[in-house]
Amino acid sequence: MRNILPGKHFPLGANYDGKGVNFALFSAHATKVVLCIFDSETEEEIERIELPEYNDEVFHGYIPDLKPGTLYGYRVFGPYEPTQGHRFNPEKLLLDPYAKQLNKSFSFSGKQFGYDPISGKQDLVPDHHDSSDVMPKCVVVDPLAPATEHVDIEDERTVIYEAHIKGFTQLNPDVPVELRGTYAGMAEPAVIDYLKNLGITSIELLPVQGFFDESFALEKGLKNYWGYNSIAFFAPEPRYCHSKDLAEFKHMVAAFHKAGIEVILDVVYNHTAEGNHLGPTYSFKGIDNASYYRLSPENKRFYMNYSGCGNTLNLGHPRVLQLVMDSLRYWVEVMGIDGFRFDLASALGRKDYHGNDSFFANSGFFAAIRQDPVLSRAKLIAEPWDIGGDGYQLGQYPTNWFEWNDRFRDAVRRFWKGDEGIAPEFARRIHGSADLFSRRGRSSFASVNFVSAHDGFTLHDTVSYEQRHNLDNGEENRDGHGSNFSRNYGVEGETDDPEINEIRARQKRNILTTLFVAQGTPMLLAGDERNNTQNGNNNAYCQDNELTWLDWTSEQDGLFDFVAHLIKIRKEHPLINRRFFLHGQTESEKTGLKDIVWYNCHGQEMDDHSWNLHSLKSVSLLLANTEHNNDSEDAILIVFNSEEQPRQFQLPNLPGHWRCILDTSDIKNTNKNRLLSEPTLSMNGASCSIYTFCYQEPSGN
Description:
The chain has 15 helices and 30 strands. By secondary structure, it is an alpha/beta fold. The strands form 8 sheets. An 8-stranded parallel β-barrel has the order 11-12-15-16-19-20-21-22. A 6-stranded antiparallel beta sheet has the order 23-24-25-30-27-28, with helices on one face. It has a 4-stranded antiparallel beta sheet with strand order 1-2-6-5, with no helix packed on it. Helix 9 packs across helix 10. 50% of the residues are buried.
């Protein structure tokens, strides 16, 4: 029997100090906590040790001479009273919420349910099967040194690339076979060079914190591919590990940093993998269900479900808030992460105020982030909604946050597919959604503009499918978005028709151009630059196969180079990329132009009558240099024509030179840097073009 000392109640987790390990576990309602030690090879349970001390609602103990690599878990004793919110069951091995590493990936078993599913009383009767043989084990780790470098991309220069660790590398021929699908594979020079050549500044990784597959997906032979089912907030997901070295993830981050690319993690703190009252018991349910989760005030047997995944973490509890904050700081300070995208972030801001569990932008979570000396400097991106009442909060987040802007996606898709009456909404989104964000000192980059993301159609599928094709998900095509604002141009799915393929290719260029010339922060979905398709599946969360893995053999049709050129244009032309909102109220002393002006095809400034024309599908946006403290052009004109027929556009009547720097109807880019000789330009149908203007002082002045 090992000697166990009292130890300390802080820090939480299993912490090795060079001489032994201190174990500390919070539970406000448990009666006893037993530490279980497992053989590192066979995973057989070899010791059970009761933590001897209880202080500040933390069970703790210190074991001398215990080494890194030790496998462990907890059995927590207390009442099994679901109607009172308590689900203690010491037969279930529980993960340490502060575990830094898991020894293996998850595999599901009925033993992981804390209740007896055959009792006929649902979750009201405890199950007595030991789950230790089917649970991953926590690993005691030798602490990693703090990260020494971060990449700090200026907000207005940020170009985000949303990618999946496995999906990006699994079929990549430039990644060694043994490294594909792993953190090490993502750090390969070929991957880094690809992203540098594309020009992105920031990579946003889909969830990499330890997550488990849902049983209903496994029963259909599927998996949780996206990873939005977290359970281990400190541990890198084992299925992406090439080695057992915890530093593998950190080395990947360092490789991106060396290339000047910042790393943003998509994190899921709104719910956990334990589901609702009929879900399994992996960790929090068995440690202190009543503290960790928001429970129904009418019956604590049931969970408040703002996530749509069965439960909601209770960030109103100080220890749960501490867990989340400690986790975020760990990823920044130790792993080197530069920012976070928060899944269903409205659930994090729900505050029980006089019985009103509504969203508050000054909730404890947001206040804690703002005052934290580490996290307040990270990039903070919200998915600004959840499924609860009043959950859609676009534009309402704290002023230091970015927000995913789905209204940008929908407006851009609808404009280019030819919808009538959408032009005013389209213009507002191109303007950085000032109607949503231009308040309280927020800047235009607060809007994260995207036209596709992991959830929904890829860009290629947006112009190839009008209906979702999700039968492979095993839900009879009922899952996924019903409103995709997509168009197939005559054939549903792939076709050999050259005319259809030509208009699809041009519409992709139109949509991408709109993304990168709009005010705000652009986000590109990995694979959209190379015609990636999911065959019309718009909810591929459970497809860990070639449907979702990027196809590196597909024909790009020059799209990669086109996107790289767009990103280069954005970087080289600061008029496209403003820190502040423009309102058409500032004029250039040099040219007399307003900082922002919308024109109709006749070269006339848009007025209310023009905007109210339901059939309006052609507009142009002029951005003028009102500062003239740099060597950039005096103005940029972006012309959008979503009509299917060609359209004549009258250029603003100004003395100077107009030069075309991009035309989406010119796939070979023969018009690049072409000077315009006439004040009228001919726009092809369904096309977009960009012109720079250099003012020439009229003769005689």
